From TrEMBL:
Its main location: cytoplasm. The keyword RNA-binding does not apply. GO terms for molecular function: acireductone synthase activity; magnesium ion binding. Substrate binds at residues 136-137, 175. Monomer. SUPFAM superfamilies: HAD-like (SSF56784). Mg(2+) binds at residues 16, 18, 200. It comes from Wickerhamomyces mucosus. This is Enolase-phosphatase E1. It is an enzyme of class 3 (hydrolase). Its cofactor is Mg(2+).
Length: 245
């Protein structure tokens, strides 16, 4: 593996999550199936019709659906199945998923698969005084949850102590927009030439490069293949160990 050097010292690293420090398949192959497996039991334990003045946290979440939906377990189940099968981005569904995933992490049934080279370099970089930030389209709450329950040899470890900040689309803007990266630079107060952004997504890498941030495309198993055009955008790495920083 060729190592990648930089002309100025790198003091801040901004990381994408899926396809970069964690497998891109985690959400699709682990989190979504876990939700589908768990939700029937969850819904069977609710009191119907759902009351919006309920004290139960899950009843409170689903009470944001209309009353015709929450009048019975059957109609609620059908509605959730419909949203999931059509991949509709519904905020109530997202809240329900977030709640169920949190319980899954807390019970130990879910563990976050952060790549080993990611874990060891997080530790190395922070021990050298560098700051590491996360920028993901998943919510900051979801980001912190993921890094709180990292699978290391089948035990969960909280890696949030190695992270100096979190950014998502609500704090900084969409990941393909160059302005999002200038927003982040302002927030972290580092110059672009001492900052490194890593992502599997070429459009994100381009947007960061537009701000003169050092930026590399990360190639991991399961990521979308890169075209010849993509490969002209920046250098690629397959492991964080290739970074000479
Ligand atoms: Mg990604």
């Amino acid at each position: 593996m060729a190592s990648i050097q930089f002309s100025t010292p790198i003091n801040a690293i901004i990381l994408d999550i899926e396809g970069t420090i964690a497998p891109i398949t985690f959400v699709k192959d682990v989190l979504f199936p876990y939700f589908l497996k768990t939700v029937p039991k969850t819904l069977s334990q609710l009191k119907y019709p759902i009351s919006s003045s309920s004290q139960d946290p899950i009843e409170l979440i689903v009470s944001n659906f209309s009353e015709t939906i929450t009048q019975s377990q059957e109609s609620l189940t059908n509605h959730i199945n419909d949203l999931v099968s059509k991949d509709i981005k519904d905020s109530t569904l997202k809240s329900l998923q977030g709640y169920i995933w949190q319980e899954g992490y807390e019970s130990g049934e879910l563990k976050a698969p952060i790549y080993a080279d990611g874990i060891s370099n997080l530790k190395k970089w922070t021990s050298k005084g560098k700051k590491v930030y996360i920028y993901s389209s998943g919510s900051i709450k979801a980001q912190k949850l993921l890094f709180k329950y990292v699978d290391i040899n089948n035990e969960t470890h909280d890696l949030n102590g190695y992270l100096s900040g979190y950014f998502d689309i609500t704090t900084s803007g969409f990941k393909f927009e160059p302005s999002s990266y200038s927003n982040i630079l302002k927030d972290i107060a580092f110059n672009p030439d001492e900052t490194l952004f890593l992502s599997d997504n070429v459009k994100e890498v381009k947007a960061a490069l537009d701000n003169n941030i050092n930026s590399l495309i990360v190639i991991r198993e399961g990521n979308a293949p890169l075209s010849d055009e993509d490969l002209k955008v920046s250098k690629t790495i397959t492991s964080f160990y290739q970074l000479d920083i």
